[in-house]
Amino acid sequence: MSLKLRLLIIVTLILIFNFVAAGYFMIQNARQAVAAEMASSTQLARGLLINALPTLRFSNDLSERVTLIVDSVRHTRHIRAWFEDMNGQPLIGHEEGVPFTNRPDAPDWFIRLMEPEAVAFRRLITRGSQSYGYLVVEADPSDEVTEVWRDMETLLFLGLFFLTVISSLIYLALLHGLRPLQQLADALGHLEKGDFHARVDTGGAKELKPIQIRFNHMADVLETTMAENHALAGNMLTLQESERRDLARELHDELAPCLFGIRVDLAEIERIAIENKLPDVEEKVSSVKLITSHIQSLVRKMLSRLRPMTLDDLGLVEALRDMLHNWRDRQPEIDWEWDFVGDFTGLADTLQVTVYRVVQECTTNCVRHAEASHVRVEVKREKQYIKVTVTDDGKGLDTSAVKGFGLIGMRERVSALGGKIAFDTAEGQGLQVRVMIPMKSENKK
Questions:
Q1: Does residue 287 surpass a pLDDT of 60?
Q2: Do 39 and 163 share a structural domain?
């Protein structure tokens, strides 16, 4: 659960508790007020009734006089009055079709909660020895209960209104106050992806400013360190390629002619041995020729590993075409496709070698591991980048294979030049290797 939601829930619960408490005390006070009001009204009606009863003995028409007394008392606030016979049936004060008791305009549960105990006054009406019935006065709290319920509705409406307003304001305040944390999280995500230009605004909450300042300082240090590491790695790669080129040149220019001379001399020795019928010498010469051929094969492999000679002889594009043509001849069951877009002349030597080695490693993996039937190689020169994409329809790349030495070597070469490499793969759906290498000034000749 997010911090915003937690704080919002806590504040909402506090507000609801306050409103419930306010409603509880309001109902308690209202009950006491209703009880007091009912007692006061009943006491007043009782006094009126007691004062009016002596006039009954002087009245010729008892029914008419009782009706006058009931009407006079009935107009008292919160009072019901009627005259009933000895069996409890209302005779005066209750019209046909009119409810005997008033029902408050409120829910039943609220009526049960609010209505006080009935307060009633009964007086037996007699003349001489004859009893005619009872004159009854009872408190009627319906109006009071209705008023209290309307006050409660108003309180509930205001409570919901202020709860909504306060919750909205708190949410907006939290949204604004926690926005720097979201910016900080986004900036950390950029750092995680290798974007060391990410910075955060040092404005906002005063409490977060030290964290923001330290983050920006950390990002500055990381950016400087990574720039220095890239420069160092680039220099090391340049130095490494220079040493490899020199070593390959020495092997090609020094060792290769020596081996060729040995083969020529061995051929002459073999001729002399045959003419003079020296089978032992002829046998030894054949053995040395095999060893020399093996050494020449090893030298060629070493030259290929140290430095792709076709890159110096043909240039990047033709060297890549030559490599892919060789793959097509050796693996005719695979459909090879390539596309080179842009001018690749004038590129730094380390950049050309890196592009060549990336394509070489990717195509080798396609043949050895992917079990692919189609391989496509794309190399594009864009404004500030060299983009290399190698796609196959093989079995995909196991996540553990990303840590293989060949792929690690590719990643290190690309990273040394400030580039990025990505692997898009799914099991049974092939693999796409995407490489972006910037053409920085330090990478140019």
A1: yes
A2: yes
